[in-house]
Amino acid sequence: MMPAAETKIRFIDRLEQAVRRRGTPALVGIDPHLDLLPPNILPAEGPQRRLLPRQRLAVAVREFCAGVLDVIGSMVPIVKFQMAFFEQLGPEGMSALAELVGHARRYGLLVILDGKRGDIGSTAVAYAEGMLGPAPVSSWGGDAVTVSPYLGEDSLQPFIETAVARQGGVFVLVKTSNPGSGLFQDLIAEGMPLYRHVAAWVEQQAVRTKGRCGYGDVGGVVGATFHEQLAELRQVMPHTWFLVPGYGTQGGTARDVAPAFDPTGLGAIVNNSRGILFAYRRREFERFGPTRWQEAIEAATREMIDQLRTDTPAGRLTSR
Amino acid sequence: MMPAAETKIRFIDRLEQAVRRRGTPALVGIDPHLDLLPPNILPAEGPQRRLLPRQRLAVAVREFCAGVLDVIGSMVPIVKFQMAFFEQLGPEGMSALAELVGHARRYGLLVILDGKRGDIGSTAVAYAEGMLGPAPVSSWGGDAVTVSPYLGEDSLQPFIETAVARQGGVFVLVKTSNPGSGLFQDLIAEGMPLYRHVAAWVEQQAVRTKGRCGYGDVGGVVGATFHEQLAELRQVMPHTWFLVPGYGTQGGTARDVAPAFDPTGLGAIVNNSRGILFAYRRREFERFGPTRWQEAIEAATREMIDQLRTDTPAGRLTSR
């Protein structure tokens, strides 16, 4: 009876509990860039690696990512798989992704599938049903997905409905972390930028899907690299949990992401991908050398957790 | 020597030649909705089918889609695979997709991978390199992809650069065919709707990637269901080849899509998915019954080709 009851807890309340349990909103992004994999995982240099058989590349990616999960599996509440790096390797890469999602879930990690999908009606249903919910309810076993809003409401609702039915979540792109995100997102319509229109819609959906923690199953992606917009959006989206990319390699610091949180330290998860996965390449961790890449990952994860604890309201998560 | 020279022809010129050769701009969308597959391909009724093992579903989808390609392989110039319906079936579905792309190419069909991807910098590169170019240059073997513009220029350029380097193409969502597409796309900024801002950017890129036929490797997705916008966009995007969804089941007719073409009958390809794949369910073709679904597909494809020839400038393609 208990497991059945357990599965009835909404995504957002499971996320809140996981963040409290692990005491940190740090989210590790699993982005296995071929060119950056450690040499004992995949020999040959950068571009030459692309010439290796895809099967060989997929084996290396699986081994590396499993090694990442083995380190961080008990340190953080949630991981995010960047689907592009698996899709890049063809069907073999997608098989690796499916196995790795299972690997992550065995550590009790929540799993975001970052595919930024978006399509019309029945096609959106196919994406949503394939991605959301534990296997075998879904094919890919994600707890949450990222979606792109350009196609409008009828492209987003199928994701939200499937998510709510399966105790899953949806993070809608609002203001992304890339330098060129403003080209369309910052266009001013009816007195406010496009991203604020998307924000208003997302906040409505968050209210509609609100859990016991006060946030909704529908969240928003807001980049760490746009400090002011992060603060602005926190104000106008009080029920929307933020997925904040752009920390670390892209330039965002713990101070930059501090406005993403509410005063109790909830309301945001902060993603770091390359800064953790490829920490062995960072000067601060070069003491480990390329073969001890897992120790570098552990040190970098601890560093991020400490920085978020010191410089953001997330420090209050562990002082209760 | 000839094949090497052949591969140097830009995507857009290959598309133009293929459209002329087959004498039609009809594009068949390969969207294998599980619920609509013929009963001799997959037994059981609609929703109960989802309970079958994924491996079984993937075999059925592969068999059905191969059967579609066997009928239309010499009738139309190009097909579009809707990735969602393959991704929905997990790794097994993605393996089926890879095989089916190969099957399509053996008929000389050009292949669009419709994933509406969009992500930042190095992630966009991973998507683009995985999808664009014949296997084994890419993992998926697409001639062109669809992309979503919300993330802005630095998310789109990696697709365009990879496409140009590999004689591929990119279709950017401009005005989509779904009823709710206006929520964000129609917001007025600086005196014109968002989709016009996207259109202006796409047209610039089309000019920059122009082939001998006068159109560019960067095209635009413009729905058949918004007749006026189609005519408006044809005016302001003279170098942009249109991919026009929404024909058939979504309500668009040949007359609706006529404004997508230039006076010589070039400049657009028109997609029909369900109206062709599941023609055996349409009243006009019920005489074939569910087991003769391939004959229904052939009749529906001929019907679409004829309607486009009669009611649009595409009729001029064959009268030269």
UniProtKB/TrEMBL annotation, chains A, B:
It catalyses: orotidine 5'-phosphate + H(+) = UMP + CO2. Residues 25-288 form the Orotidine 5'-phosphate decarboxylase domain. GO terms for biological process: 'de novo' pyrimidine nucleobase biosynthetic process; 'de novo' UMP biosynthetic process. InterPro entries: Aldolase_TIM, OMPdecase_AS, OMPdecase_type-2, OMPdeCOase_dom, RibuloseP-bd_barrel. The active site is at residue 116. Pfam families: OMPdecase. Its EC number is 4.1.1.23. Keywords: Decarboxylase, Lyase, Pyrimidine biosynthesis. One of its GO terms (molecular function) is orotidine-5'-phosphate decarboxylase activity. Belongs to the OMP decarboxylase family. Type 2 subfamily. PANTHER family: OROTIDINE 5'-PHOSPHATE DECARBOXYLASE (PTHR43375). This is Orotidine 5'-phosphate decarboxylase. It comes from Thermogutta terrifontis. The gene is pyrF.
